Amino acid sequence: MTPNPPSSKRTAGHLIAVLVLPGASPLDVGITSQVFSQRPGIPAYDLVHCSIAAGPVRGRDGLGFVVEAGLEAIAAADTVIVPGSRNPARALDQRVLDALRDAAFRGARMVSICGGAFALAQAGILDGRRATTHWQLAPALAREYPKVQVDGDVLFVDEGQVLTSAGVAAGIDLCLHIIRRDHGVQASNAVARVIVAAPYRSGGQSQFIPRTVPEPLGDLFAATREWALKHLDEPLTLATLARHARVSERTFGRRFVEDTGYTPMQWVLRARVDLARALLETTDLGVDQVAARVGLGTGANLRLHFQRVLSTTPTDYRRTFRWRDPDAA
Predict the structure, then answer these.
(1) What b/e string do you get for 191-203 counting C-beta neighbours within 10 Å, with b at 16 or more?
(2) Domains in the chain, ordered, with CATH?
(3) Closest Cα to residue 119, out of 108, 131, 107?
(4) What is the pLDDT of residues 44-54, one digit of tens each?
(5) What does the angle CA 306 – CA 169 – CA 329 come to, to the nearest 5 degrees?
(6) Residues 203-242 pLDDT 10s
(7) Residue 124: which pLDDT band, with cuts at 50, 70 and 90?
């Protein structure tokens, strides 16, 4: 037998059960409370926080919770949300796993924020599905649950009945997406205004890891890499880099891949994208000017590579991450 399909009609009074596991992240839990709170003029959700039993639950970061319900709340819920927690890969109580499986089987909408994806994976709910989690946890999720199609680059994944988000603030994006799916754009925008959040970020948008250029595994060709970073606005070819390293092109290419996991030209491209990110965040240079500064030639070329590497445009990236001096007039 297969789970019943989720209901396409979501109405006010829709019950959301938030599963607060031991070590739960206060911010992940708080996101659900903020986004799905009942507000005048906004379609209402009934929100209940639960755990193995009602009562105190120790959280992480020095904060704890007192939840009002046990696992029976999951049995009655239309949507079940599992926030992240400390040590998300740990084995869960069998009662928790059974409650999650039963909810998924009867067609409840199953949602995870950050490391909460491990709970859904452990229950088998993510088998054969595409899912995401925080980019730092994605390799472990893929390793521990090979049946899950882990995409560690995106903000959230909507698989219909099952939805997963990346870490921390991406949980806001997913919860707003749920309201948008249930009640439309105006309702989600109204909630976004109340909580002072971006009204819409595409689930396919990149998580924007700190650097797209990988940390080197060793000191091999470190001097050449440092030299290249200072000359990104100049033509850089495999021959140029190999000449600087004083080895043959074949040797340079092979050993560079062994050290970084990227070909020299892939590495150069990502270094240029990283420099472009910094310029977009900290300067008023136009897209064409940024492209010239980083060695990508034209604005069209920069847009193409931004889309490929970060799944967004330079303009949208600047709008999201532009740094402004709080002391400036």
Answers:
(1) bbeeeebeeebeb
(2) 14-195 (3.40.50.880), 222-321 (1.10.10.60)
(3) 131
(4) 799 999 999 99
(5) 75
(6) 555 555 555 555 444 557 888 988 998 999 999 999 999 9
(7) very high
